[in-house]
Design brief:
The chain is 72% helix and 2% strand. By secondary structure, the chain is mainly alpha-helical. Pfam families: Proton_antipo_M (PF00361).
Amino acid sequence: MEPLTMLNLALLLLFTGALVALFKGGRIAYLFTLSASIPIFLVSIAGIDGFKGEILPFLPTGVDVDPLSALFLMVLAFLTFSISLYLLDYRVRGDERYLGLSVNMALLSALLFITTDDLERLTLAYELFAVFTFVLILTSETKGSRKAAWRYIVLTQLFGIIPLLTATSLAHAAGALTFEELRANLANLPVGLWVMYALYLSAFLVRAGVFPFHTWVARTYRSVPSPLIPVFIVGEGFGFYGILRMTEFVLPTSKTVGYVIASLGAVSAFATLYSFREIRLKRKFAHHSIMDVGIAFFALGASMVLGGTAETIVLIGALLHILYQALYKSAVFFGLGAIEHYGEEPNICSIRKLLKGHVISLLISLSVFSMAGVPPLAAFVSKWPIFEGIATSKDILLWLMMLTVAFLSLFPMASILQIRRLNRELCKREVEREEIPLMIRTVTGIVAIAGFTVAVFPLLIHPWLASAIEEIGGPIPETPTGVFFASPSFLVAITLLVAAPLAGWRVGRVPTDRVSELLLIFYNMGDILKEAFGFFLDEFRKAYIRYVLPIIKVVPRYELPLVKDVDDAFDYPVRHLDEAMFMPLIRAVERLARWGKSRNLDMNALIGGFAVAMAVLIVLLGVFA
């Protein structure tokens, strides 16, 4: 079967699964999702040699699957298989129809995003993923899910889709519709390259959950059922893919941009410190998740600054880390789903259900120790080339960031020991051993063992990885020893990586209050930033309630002072809009049309401007109405 046919088949199966979920329920739909993982994997194999073409006859979409796309498609296929198989035996809280619809359409959007080379379809896929993951959060029906959903969609619209639409419009103005055409027409852009960098960085940093757009991660992970969190992990992965695609294949490499990306990634690693404040395991691991994605971005930025073999080695580490963290994080959340399956929230005490003689506890332990960087597990293997490549350079800024990341790498291990210690000290209630369904145990085991296997034997993914590096154009080490033992600096990497979990072991045995005192300065810095952001957000909310709410909602004037928050506005009916209220808008559109006619704007610019305006309306009216 031709690769394009397989790609069409995968999209068709996911779309069919979404429709079946809407009318028949999620469990039947997940069989279609499971089936879609097979053609996705076959497409990833075909992508090692690369292929181009057009898919979707009713919506012609150009695709260009190269080895880099194939690498991410391989992970997407594996997670699609794992999520669908797990959900066949999981008691979903919330509306199964809309959850099944959202899962299938989100995975479809991710598949389209990774394979297309059309800038418009890329933007469409980004927006579809944002919308359907928003529905996924909203229909989870957990405490705080509605508020988390609104915050998530506002962030993805304001700092994600609007910059992406603007960048696409600017590219169209330069005569570019694909990545290749954009690279060839950079000189014709009506703005400087730094504007394009800023727009694409904003969009993909939001998608990946990297500082300063990381605020949605912990709230979303807390609100979504654990086995559905890997859907968002897929999104974080294609956020990294988007940045890598733009910086290595489209826009010219810039050391300044490299420093910016590396510094944002290094700052994101500080999120792991906040895990000590959490007893809820999903939020605790969400903070570690922000750190993991941040380390991958730090490595990507460092590779843009470095050159030659060091650049390639660090980039290999970045790719390994973004792939490994997707596996061991998914295994952890699949394991926590076993607790939710019986109606309990995963926390330090409820985890005792898994520690009661279950093999699943061993599988989760394998994954969390992979996250902690215990040799020779996943995070240890992926950070090795990152630290080694940077250690060969004389760049003081990269060295400082590397030492910061190495220091912060001790806290995942300390957090793991904190869970065990607090469980023994605080949780005295005896729990009964409950049988965990076969599918939940099987999928958790498959993902955990896969994360362990590809870390210890990285040659298993060598065809994808080597082809991706060759496509990027860097010098390729002939053997794995050329990556891990490229220079004497590997001793620096090993020293840092071994010291981190050992130090974490010592810190984890210290009482939590004492650790919090030592970390007080970091917490205070975070609280100051949070309060500053909260001040501006509060002023925006007050302005909305005072000036916008009376237009959108029917709120009696005497009750307006009683409306203190956006949640209070949901209690009032939407105002009926008559024709007179639209007249100012109609006149504004007429003036805009006359101005556009005088400037002789092309259709792409008009469509792009309309799309930006609609995204703004979604935020102002759709969200708060």
